[in-house]
Specification:
Elements lengths: L3 E5 L2 E5 L4 E5 L2 E5 L6 E6 L9 E6 L2 E3 L15 E7 L8 E2 L4 E3 L5 E15 L9 E6 L2 E3 L15 E7 L8 E2 L4 E3 L5 E9 L1 E5 L6 E2 L3 E5 L10 E2 L16
Parallel strand pairs: 5-11, 11-17
Antiparallel strand pairs: 1-2, 2-3, 3-4, 5-6, 7-10, 8-9, 8-11, 11-12, 13-16, 14-15, 14-17, 18-20, 19-21
């Protein structure tokens, strides 16, 4: 009878009569005694000097350990996890979080691929409006000014009135150009719109009208135009030019 143990990159194999007990990322799995154990090594990869890693052992096809379940947990301030790649610089073969891996293919090293945290701005001109822009950073910086967003945000008859984390304006408010600490994570902001008020003046053009001026606010009830009269003529309606048309 032979007993022993072997350290495999922070994963441990305990060999006994019944098989192999694999301790990987805090989990214990008993594998058949004749199984060829393969180890996948996950590397945090937040810098060239980063030595934080976790392992997963297996003998058959199985899902890779989910990023959120790795032990120790992986972090990279100002960035969020995107996927895994076989090269530290993000090149090579890509594996999604929890992807299926055939452990019979052999040992594998996967490097976390990170992206800067992002703020997503939504035009929010209507419930179905999908126009958006994005800003990425990993530090505290001013949000992109509304007038500098690309594409340009528009909502005819309304003026921009700031940002909110809720489309209906009930969430946290952010002023135009406010500083946001991107190390806190991703953020979604919805444009808030203030109805415009328009002044309307009526020129009876030689006749008389029941009103000479009015105002109209976007979204309010339709404006009722006044009547007008002139001796010897029938009223034909209001126009934006004195000559009609």
């Amino acid at each position: 009878m032979r007993y022993g143990f072997k350290d495999i990159q922070r994963g441990f194999l305990i060999i006994g009569l019944v098989g192999v007990a694999v301790i990987s990322s805090g989990m214990i799995n008993v594998l058949p005694a004749n199984a060829a154990v393969t180890v996948v090594t996950f590397v945090e990869n937040d810098s060239l000097a980063d030595q934080v890693y976790a392992t997963q052992a297996g003998t058959t096809s199985a899902p890779l350990t989910l990023f959120d379940n790795l032990s120790p947990s992986f972090t990279n301030t100002g960035f969020h996890f995107v996927n895994w790649t076989t090269n530290a610089d993000g090149t090579g073969t890509t594996y999604s979080d929890g992807a299926q891996y055939d452990f019979t293919l052999g040992n594998l090293t996967l490097y976390a691929h990170w992206a800067e945290n992002a703020v997503t701005f939504y035009e929010n001109a209507s419930g179905s409006d999908t126009v958006s822009a994005q800003q990425s950073s990993s530090t505290a910086v001013p949000l992109t000014l509304f007038s500098n967003l690309s594409p340009i945000f528009e909502n005819q008859g309304y003026s921009f009135g700031g940002w909110s984390t809720s489309a209906n304006g009930s969430g946290t408010s952010y002023a135009n150009g406010a500083t946001y600490d991107f190390t806190l994570g991703d953020l979604t902001l919805f444009a808030q719109w203030t109805p415009d008020t328009f002044s309307v003046s009526y020129d009876a053009n030689g006749g008389t009208a029941t009103s000479s001026a009015a105002s109209f606010t976007t979204g309010s009830a339709p404006l009722t135009l006044p009547s007008a009269s002139e001796s010897g003529y029938s009223f034909d309606g209001w126009f934006t030019a004195a000559t009609g048309g």
